[in-house]
């Protein structure tokens, strides 16, 4: 059996450590995500789901516990190694698209690939393919300001997958959209994840969307529990 794509082992995280107002956000949270699995992470605002995703994506470090990606234990690894694995193996989607406003939709997908060493022609072909897969290939030359909210978020999803990561982490990726657009973007996101065979952890407060994923977990008082 192959190693899981992501394994979080008893993650602990507190803010204001050692102070009277110390806040324990994660209290031994554990999670294993298999290859090709889509996991829903459900929690109210302020419960710690963004912290958990940041730790899973090596953007933050836990106070205790281990983070393994593709079987590689990243605990205590130097920043250079963490940056390399994060760049090559993890894609991020946030509630707000964070696209570069001065570049077109296609250019927003090409730039991260160029930064990762891909030839321009290959990067442009990959970007066009991704935009086509989410139904907005004809909008490739448009800058973000000329795109609708749903289109902007589809570009953000494509950008997260441009470098072919093994793991996608999405933090309320449809939380800023109306219900109809949210459903369309979520369908495009999950279809793209399924087609590429990667694994995903998607944080959402929408129980209907969560029910369409392979497994649903709730972050409850710093611990992950099955819904």
Automatic annotation (TrEMBL):
Pfam families registered for this protein in UniProt? ABC_tran
Which GO biological-process labels does this protein carry?
A: lipoprotein localization to outer membrane; protein localization to outer membrane
| Gene Ontology annotations for the cellular component aspect, listed alphabetically | membrane protein complex; plasma membrane
Looking up InterPro entries in the UniProt record yields: AAA+_ATPase, ABC_transporter-like_ATP-bd, ABC_transporter-like_CS, ABC_transpr_LolD-like, MacB-like_ATP-bd, P-loop_NTPase
Q: Which UniProt keywords apply?
A: ATP-binding, Cell inner membrane, Cell membrane, Membrane, Nucleotide-binding, Transport
Keyword ATP-binding assigned:
yes
PROSITE patterns linked: ABC_TRANSPORTER_1, ABC_TRANSPORTER_2
The GO terms this record gives for MF are: ATP binding; ATP hydrolysis activity; transmembrane transporter activity
Q: Where is the ABC transporter domain?
A: 6-227
Q: List the SUPFAM superfamilies hit by this protein, alphabetically.
A: P-loop containing nucleoside triphosphate hydrolases (SSF52540)
Q: Does the keyword Kinase apply?
A: no
Q: In which family does this protein belong, per the annotation?
A: Belongs to the ABC transporter superfamily. Macrolide exporter (TC 3.A.1.122) family.
Q: What is this protein called?
A: ABC transporter ATP-binding protein
